[in-house]
Amino acid sequence: GATIGILGGGQLGRMLSVAAARLGYRCHVYDPGTNPPAGDVCAQVTSAPWEDEAALRAFAASVDVITFEFENVPTATLDLLEAARPIRPDRRALAVSQDRLTEKQFLRDLGLTTAPFAPVSDADTLEQAVAQIGTPAILKTRRMGYDGKGQARIMAAEDAPAALAAMAGADAILEGFVNFSLEVSVIAARGLDGRVAAYDPGENLHEDGILRQTTVPARLTGSQRADAVLLAGRILNALEYVGVLGVELFVTPQGLVVNEIAPRVHNSGHWTQNGCVVDQFEQHIRAITGLPLGDGGRHADVIMENLIGNDMDRVPELLGARDVALHLYGKPERREGRKMGHVNRIVAQG
Ligand code: ATP
Ligand code: MG
Ligand code: MG
């Protein structure tokens, strides 16, 4: 069988490796950290910095196709790898999603709705942005933010200096606050042949900026559900995307607002592991290796709950619970805010 190279060895890389193994593939993970969670389950791990050209060349030479679980791989690293092996999804998807400003412009150009936004690089541009967008608003770093990190709320104009200071000099984007009734996400895939498959949208609950829980089915009307899936398809087709994509949406009375896209398997798609015959990890491996996509149909109603930090104390109880599938990431140290695992609770047959 072929070997799949995965950039990033966190829990997503780990679950991708397991899915790849089930289809008879080997995985080689490249991660700058030592002992990444994916290392336990894949055939080969390279622990080297993103700048190590020799290590990158050796990695590329050992694999047939490259994918990633981490969208912030530096551009120079991607240039070097791309010259040797196909990267799927490709550079366009990465370029669009590495920078919140590029991302929002791309979505808007596609005719989709986003929060109002304006670029911010200093006190003057922030003042203009606040005047244009109003408050409440959220200032976010353009790059590298995740789990709500690199964000500051601006409830009134006088909060602006503190919010700017929180960006620590990084380029930022000011977003108008969206008054949503619900947050949902669509996990969808596009194959090498251009076919698209989408999972049922999940309803997401965040706590302190971190995903806490995803429930399927989401509380959406039929037309909202169709809108959500169709807009994900538009994004996939516009990017000629290959692989699994996560699209985070706000549901408002005026329609769906796109928050952000993730060019990879997504935490809010973990429910598919126990709610679908072909889960998002297998779907991604199928897509990038040119296999036909799985159907994406759902056979159960599921609540996925993340196990964060001290939630790990609940593991013994969860092991004894009926209809609960436990997924642990094998991370040695628990830390506050650190995702240690998740559970999928089957609540009804779909
Ligand atoms: P992720 O871990 O999902 O990548 P992130 O750090 O990229 O997170 P966002 O998804 O932009 O952060 O924001 C985290 C959460 O904050 C959102 O899911 C939503 O609940 C809230 N939020 C973000 N932007 C807005 C907005 N413009 N209006 C209202 N709420 C928002
Ligand atoms: Mg994000
Ligand atoms: Mg998000």
Fold and architecture overview:
Its EC number is 6.3.4.18. Belongs to the PurK/PurT family. Pfam families: ATP-grasp, PurK_C, RS_preATP-grasp-like. Pathway: Purine metabolism; IMP biosynthesis via de novo pathway; 5-amino-1-(5-phospho-D-ribosyl)imidazole-4-carboxylate from 5-amino-1-(5-phospho-D-ribosyl)imidazole (N5-CAIR route): step 1/2. It comes from Roseinatronobacter domitianus. By secondary structure, this protein is an alpha+beta fold. It has three domains: 85 residues, Rossmann fold, CATH 3.40.50.20; 61 residues, 2-Layer Sandwich (Dna Ligase, domain 1); 168 residues, ATP-grasp fold, B domain (D-amino Acid Aminotransferase, Chain A, domain 1, 2-Layer Sandwich), CATH 3.30.470. Helix content is 29%, strand content 30%. It is built from eleven helices and 17 strands. Strands 9, 10, 11, 12, 13, 14, 15, 16 and 17 form a nine-stranded antiparallel sheet that branches. A four-stranded parallel sheet has the order 3-2-1-4, with helices on both faces. A four-stranded antiparallel sheet has the order 5-8-6-7, with helices on both faces. A hairpin with a 2-residue loop joins β13 and β14. α1 crosses α10 and α4 packs across α5. The longest helix is centred in the middle third of the chain and has 17 residues. The protein starts with a strand and ends with a strand. The mean pLDDT is 96. One magnesium ion (MG) binds next to β14.
